[in-house]
Specification:
About 35% of the residues lie in helices and about 20% in strands. Strand 2 (about 20-25) and strand 3 (about 25-30) form a beta hairpin. It is of the alpha+beta class and about 80 residues long. It is built from four helices and four strands, in the order E-H-E-E-H-H-H-E. The model has no long low-confidence stretch (mean pLDDT about 95). The chain has a single domain (about 5-75), classed as Flavocytochrome B2, Chain A, domain 1 (Roll), CATH 3.10.120. It has helices spanning about 5-10, 40-50, 55-60, 65-75; strands at about 5, 20-25, 25-30, 75-80. The chain is globular. The chain has a four-stranded mixed beta sheet. The chain starts with a strand and ends in a 6-residue tail after the last strand. Keywords: Heme, Iron, Metal-binding.
Amino acid sequence: MSDTFTTKQVAEHKDVEKGLYIIIDGGVYKMDSFVDEHPGGAKILKRVGGKDASKQFWKYHNESVLKKYAPKLKIGTVKEEAKL
């Protein structure tokens, strides 16, 4: 869980076949194994694959959801990139 990813690397995993990574508050989560379990449906997760889903996540979930699933789904963090 100590891996660091660039946003470009996360974007490369935009679908289930490639791992379906999403970003929530700087954390990178691998969602491919969770897609079918997601109470809101697979379609929602697939729509945010490879992207920062923080805004969408916090709109429908609270911190307890993140704490519950992070140990199983979090694979690393997003590397800070220089802003030019």
